[in-house]
Specification:
The complex is a heterodimer.
Chain A lengths: L51 E4 L2 E3 L5 E5 L8 H13 L6 E5 L16 H28 L6 E4 L2 E4 L4 E4 H8 L30 H4 L16 E7 L6 E5 L1 H5 L4 E7 L11 E6 L2 H8 L4 E4 L8 H12 L6 E6 L2 H6 L3 E9 L11 E7 L2 E6 L4 H12 L6 E5 L13 H13 L3 E4 L2 H6 L7 E9 L5 E16 L5 E5 L17 E10 L12 H19 L3 H10 L26 H15 L9 E10 L2 E11 L5 E11 L7 H21 L4 E2 L2 E2 L18 E6 L17 H13 L17
Parallel strand pairs in A: 3-4, 8-18, 16-17, 20-22, 25-28
Antiparallel strand pairs in A: 1-2, 2-3, 5-6, 6-7, 8-11, 9-12, 10-11, 13-22, 14-19, 15-16, 15-18, 19-20, 20-21, 23-24, 24-25, 26-27
Helix pairs in contact in A: 1-2, 2-3, 9-10, 12-16, 13-14
Chain B lengths: L1 E7 L2 E7 L5 H8 L18 E4 L2 E4 L12 E3 L11 H8 L9 H14 L5 H8 L9 H14 L4
Parallel strand pairs in B: 1-5
Antiparallel strand pairs in B: 1-2, 3-4, 3-5
Helix pairs in contact in B: 2-5, 3-4
The chains are: A alpha+beta, B alpha+beta.
Amino acid sequence: MNTVTKPGLDRRGFLKFSALAGGGLLLGYYLKSGDLAAAEVGQPTAATLGDFAPNAFIRISPSGEVTIIAHKPEMGQGIRTSLPMVVAEELDVDWASVKIQAGMFDSVYGSQSAGGSTSTPTSYAPMRQMGATARAMLVEAAAQTWSVPASECTTASGAVLHAASGRKATYGSLVAKATTLTPPAAGSVTLKDPKDFKIVGKRLPGYQNADIVTGKALFGIDQKVPGMLYAVFEKCPVFGGKVVSANLDKIKTLPGVKQVFVIEGTTNLTGLMPGVAILADSTYAALSARKQLEVKWDEGPHAADSTAEFDKKAAAIGAKMEGGTSVRNEGDAAAAMAGAAKVVEAAYSYPFISHTNLEPQNTLAYVQGDRVEVWSPTQNPGAGTGLITSALGIPAANIKLHITRSGGGFGRRLSGDYMVEAAAISQKAGVPVKLQWSREDDLQHDHFRPGGHHFLKAGLDASGKIVAWQNHAVTYGTMAAGRGGGMSLQAGSGGALGAGQFPDAVVPNFHLMQTVMECNIPMGPWRAPGNCAFGYVLQGFVDELAVAAGKDPLQFRLDLLAAYPAPPAPGAAPAGGGRGGGGGGGFSASRARGVLALAAEKAGWGKKFAKGQGAGLAFHFSHQGYVAYVAEVTVSRAGTLKVDRVVAAVDVGRQIVNPSGAENQVEGSIIDALGVAMYQELTLDKGRMVKGNLAEYPMIRMPQAPAKIEIHFLTSDNNPTGLGEPAVPPLAPAVANAIFAATGKRLRQFPWSKSDLSWA
Amino acid sequence: MSQYTLNINGQSRSVDVAPETPMLWVLRDHLDLVGTKFGCGIGMCGACTIHLDGTPVRGCQTPVSTVGTKRITTIEGLSANATHPLQKAWMELDVPQCGYCQAGQLMSAAALLRDKPKPTDADIDAAMAGNLCRCATYTRIRAGIHRAAELGGAR
């Protein structure tokens, strides 16, 4: 268990900012040796004078112990294993000898947000530099000690070697000398040839697996400090509603209850919302007392909102290509549609869904005066600390944050609402507080993946070529402060469908219109924001067009991709952002063709199936990754779906850092995306989300997982990119297209559990 | 509040709690055995799975007053030093992603292997359907159980 620790050691480090290759990240706050701040979640250790700490990520003790700081939050994506692997590779030490510590939240590390599948693309090259720089200094220390040229020295397994003289010095023995050297300029050191990699590219297990299987790994929910109270927080079910009155006097008398009070909160739907806090001497006492809490809410102007009404409104809006914002309008889609040989129309939609992290939101916070120490399962530490500063007036410099392991992220923990709630409660209570959300809180007060509605129409010429395309995309938004100040209606995270989505670049008359419906629902990024839904819509509709054109679905897509403009130069840095989907941000049609063709080849595309069985395919580009699937399904006559086999082809660049972790991400993405498609839906009624717990919000379980998953990586000559998200979007359309092949039924609406798949 | 003496992982532990307090919270808040996780509170996610006399139960649905002298086993007591075949298999196959559900998965799987040392896929699906994995590591959990069966099953 944790104890409250003393404030971090002052850092007398000197700044050496340097632009590094691969993303241009400023990541060069070099510390003086022996000056590294304590940096392990849960078990802070004092910096040991005499250690060699050439930068914020590496510490080597005189006894030879190598510690690598994992600065990104771990939520199951494996980043606290994979980035240290990259450092260890260039440092040239044995993986088994490395100790990994989780970094505190500290600007010394650069960005510590883990979202948008950006950790690998932004940190891969800098982490190589960190390792290589340290290695170069150790080589220099040996060369000076032996009075030989550094160029004659090599390294292996944590030691410097001089072949000509047969001398060898372990890194530990060189620490004293190395600490006296000035780090070389970034970019001046030689990196390893990837063909000599011994760690990167190997299947390595997660660094905390031994602790996980023995129950020792500590998550946010497991943190504890002396004198801590356990808190629950009741918010208005209509988002942002204010407390009018509550039976606080009664709650105070209940067993174990120590304090109960109202938090006034703010009007920020994704920040500190109003509510009632109950603090007790155990979680169960707090949860039990809450059952007797009665609050009179001022529910505000949105207490009659419902998704049923939004659905009707969306249908009315989408019936016409007018009234919204034209995101892309090339040629004359209406005229070309009128002249088309064949017109296909379809309406696709998807509901609001929850992230449902298995570890319900929680945070331990201890506010003392204008300082706070926080333990939180966050994937984006700056969001919570920003709210603590803006809502509670605690200066950023006075926030000490331990980034604990998270029981799942999926984008939910990019938000800082639960962190600021814990700090607000501790501030008012004057004691350390662990805030614990219930599962019901989590489903009711998620920052939801926005629902959406797409009204599509396409025209084909006599040869089956797409000559016209219209899409009126209707999504949801809230009034929020814009960049220029002032309030404006802004689409929820991932709600806005941008230009640059396949196949817009090769359709001559293309009109994409977007309308945002104002709602009062807090929305946030959900694993592959936008793309997780757009992939379904676009790859489903393209499949419908292939069928209408009488073409093979694979060949139809390959033909469209063949017409695309030339791709970016091989090896070019990934385009900035790159979150946007299947076309923008440096989309390479050749890479898309590559994964499509590979998946089709490995799956044996073109096989014949009996009625009730079939194969479907889809591809999507998002978060700089290219993924294609072939799915094979069996649908019983009664309509029960079984996904028999999924064949994946994945292109995330030239180097898979940890194939075991990468495959785990793809397997998980496949099953997660299938669960969303089959089961998940949240509906709004009377201004509130109506689902209660997992009984009402089913999640995919083992029996529904595909029987067989095969994953193939296509290593193209592009910089390595992330894999937390890009494998999600193409799965649902591949399965939906397979269901069509098996049954003739086209599924255009999530969740499929509401559709009848039976056939005769 | 009432006094209870519990047999947990072979040790005698005393707590003074309300009789209806679920074992989940007794373990986590009162005994600092936090390997057993809270996920839903209604017995539907399996993250709080523990054994009572070897039978898997949901800790969130088991009031402390109902335990009596039954032997309680939690993930911390599944083996000494991570030597249960399931724990070895989990590490060998790199099963976890976030890891939050895995204690419950292991406890359910341990009971399965004790009853069926060589389970089929169908046996595994049936026994493990009550355990959610939000990261969806189901493929590896299934493979891990088969691997543990090869390594010696229930021991």
